[in-house]
Amino acid sequence: MAEEPTPSTPEGEDYRERYEQMLGELGRLEEHDQELGGLLKLTLSRVLFAVDKAYPALADAASRIRDKARKQDDHAFEVGRLRDDVEDLARRIREQEAKSEPENPIETSDAAPASHGTHNGTASHVREVLPLLLDRIAFVDSLEGRRARLISTIDDPSDQTLPSILIDRTATLINDMRQAIEKEKSELTRFLEQVTEALADIDQHTQLQSDDLAEQRSARLKLDDNLRRQVDDIDAEVESADDLGGLKLAVRERITRIRQQIQSFQQGEERRQEDIEADNQRLRERLAQLEGQTRILEEQLKQSEAKLFRDNLTGLPNRLAFDHRTRLEIARMRRDGAPLTLAIWDLDHFKDINDQLGHQAGDKTLIIVAKTFNKLIRDVDMIARFGGEEFVMLLPGASGEDALKVVDRIREKLARTKLRSREREISVTASCGLATFAPDEEMETVFSRADDALYQAKEQGRNRCVLAPTEAAGD
Question: Which residue, among 181, 152, 153, 177, has the nearest Cα to 165 in the 3D structure?
């Protein structure tokens, strides 16, 4: 008899692939969580340095918080450990601010206390830095409204909220975002555990089926052997039979034994089939339940990934997406030997647009610039918003000179773009610095060279592109 093939389980292979995908998603969540930790530390650091300058009497307290924050890793940064210190510092700042507030804030005097001017400078610094930090974070939908309201409050020139309160709200919002990511990571981890159990179940099911097939083959071989022996015995009795009556009786007995053996085999097969079907049904129910959970989780992950890798305002890829793509392109460059060029863009005089026409005009400008970039880049290129009015661009397969032609064409198109706001026409120009990767050069070095080239473009009058010199081998 032919042997049955070893049972296959496509469900197992499918879930193994999904398992690997989920692990990748978990890794990206952890990467974003680490970036949030770094941003939170950066927020504290910048604000605490501003506190040093504005409130010399509180410098020691600010320094202690900085030291505690520095000792925590980005991926495990917990603002809760610093909450008591931060709240105490915020309380002391509010006391200082209350003492320095003029009786009539509308009236100003050339003789206003120097400390009040310093506090105004601190408030201005805080209101400038916080929106940049908030803009770099991809918030979940449930927190997006709070982020937008907080930025609106910070950008409102008539708002009188104390800087210390704005700082506290920002830190709380970022920490809430981290908790949302932790919750998502926890849900994903639980699901991965369920998938792991299901895969173990599938493996066990496969082994049981394999064992059943081996047992079935053994039973069939045994039946074949018994049948052959019974037939051989019948042949022998026919040959040695003296009378027909005795032969009939002997043959009838042998046939009865054959029937019993076949019946016993069939009963054993039926029991095995029932056991296999029961096990299959249990596995199908388990996989159906897991399939439903998978669809829900995959949809959630798609939405999360869209948020994690997209800039809130422009819809362009964000810094996290850029970092991920950069690693892939560097690996491809080193494998294939094709050139790779980095470009850093910065909008010229963007602060003037914000200051003179308001942040809505600034946001509108960024959105239109982003659309222009998207229309003019090559299919293989990537453009991402890096933060504020700064954009970064990867040009795979483009040498420095080829990349310079591409970005110059984009720059010229931007310079011809006119926007209208408050019945005024706005001209938009941008400066760009480029650097081509050397084979073994790290991203940080290339970025620094492109940034230096951008600085040269600004120094040379703006609205131009500058290509950094090629990095010499061995530098």
Answer: 153
